[in-house]
Amino acid sequence: MKLVSSKEMLETARKEGYAVGQFNINNMEWIKAVLTAAEQAKSPVILGVSEGAAKYMTGYKTVVAMVEGMLDFYNITVPVSIHLDHGTYEGAKACIEAGFSSVMFDGSHYSIEENVEKTADIVKFANERGISVEAEVGSIGGEEDGVIGGGEVADPKECKLIADLGITMLAAGIGNIHGKYPDNWTGLRLDVLKTIQDITGNMPLVLHGGTGIPDEMVREAISLGVSKINVNTECQLVFSAATRKYIEDEKDLKGKGFDPRKLLAPGTQAIADTVLEKMTLFGSINRA
Ligand code: 13P
Predict the structure, then answer these.
(1) 155-200 pLDDT, tens per residue?
(2) How many whole angstroms separate alpha carbon 191 and alpha carbon 181?
(3) Residues near ligand 1 with C-beta < 6 Å?
(4) Model-level pTM?
(5) How far is the CA of 206 from the centre of ligand 1 (A)?
(6) pLDDT digits over 117-133, tens only?
């Protein structure tokens, strides 16, 4: 299967009442874990790539080549999209040129006028090439790859302005935060989510900060129109815990346990297990 844009998978998810997971990738092990889990689950999947992670993986073209190579190697049959996460204006254009099938342009830190203007420009550039576009209104809290958001709650009227630009999916701040949620977090503003969905019609909505949101709240958000949920930190946490255990159990000191193929295997499996768990929660299993 070739890479596909996120459009069809999200419109179907929106219609049928489930969400597709976006799992952020960091290296070969991450891509392997997410793709094999998606194939096993017969679930569509979105591979999220931040600009920082792309730099770490030596550029957008390397990411595309690595993913395409693996689609072929594993004979992946489920729909897979490579999506720029929280892209800049320049980054979004560069990703489209490098072969990404989907991009997010995050203009939430600009004035609404500038966000509208830049988003419209990216939509035009992307649409001519069949690439899906995610836009954002109201910044997501927390820090991700140096992009810091204050955790705003989006203004539904501004959401409507951006939704009408021909984007594929809309991320709106509803009190969600990247990374772990603080103990005093009061939960998602599902009332605002509902207003945003009502005002934007059938627009697939995106829930960022998927790590640590209680399952019940996730299900409710899906029932209110969330069709894409982003998960990053949780995969990093399970990867590091499994790798830590391997070393604390001194498995690297036995036989050829120091071989990176062995050393990184438990962490890779932990990512795949988490992806499967999330796909089950999001309802995307057996939808491909
Ligand atoms: P978490 O790191 O909180 O899972 O959020 C991921 C995300 O929203 C990526 O855009």
Answers:
(1) 999 999 999 999 999 999 999 999 988 888 889 999 999 999 999 9
(2) 20
(3) 24, 48, 85-86, 178-179, 208-211, 230-234
(4) 0.96
(5) 11
(6) 999 999 999 999 999 99
CA-nearest residue for atom 5, ligand 1, is 209
Instruction: Note whether 135 and 119 are within 8 A (CB).
Output: yes
- Asked if residues 228 and 10 have their Cβ atoms less than 8 Å apart, the reply is yes
User: Do the domain assignments include residue 148?
Assistant: yes
CATH number for the domain that contains residue 134 = 3.20.20.70
Question: Which one-letter DSSP state was computed for residue 286?
Answer: T
Closest residue (by CA) to atom 1 of ligand 1? 209
Is 85 labeled as catalytic in the residue annotation?
Answer: yes
The total number of structural domains that make up the chain = 1
What ligand 1 atom has the least distance to the C-alpha of 208? 8
pLDDT in tens, 76-116: 999 999 999 999 999 999 999 999 999 999 999 999 999 99
The SS3 of residue 133 is strand
Domain of residue 229, residue span: 7-235+269-282
Catalytic residue from among 72, 85, 215, 273: 85
In a domain, 248, yes or no: no
Q: How many CA atoms lie within 13 A of 266 on its CB side?
A: 18
**Closest ligand 1 atom to Cα of 180:** 3
User: How many whole angstroms from 94 Cα to the centroid of ligand 1?
Assistant: 22
- H-type helices in the chain, by residue range? 7-16, 28-41, 51-56, 60-73, 89-98, 112-127, 156-163, 190-200, 215-223, 233-248, 260-263, 265-282
- Locus of tokens 């005093």: 184
> Measured in angstroms, how far is the CA atom of residue 249 from the centroid of ligand 1?
30
Contact 29, 71 (CB under 8 A): no
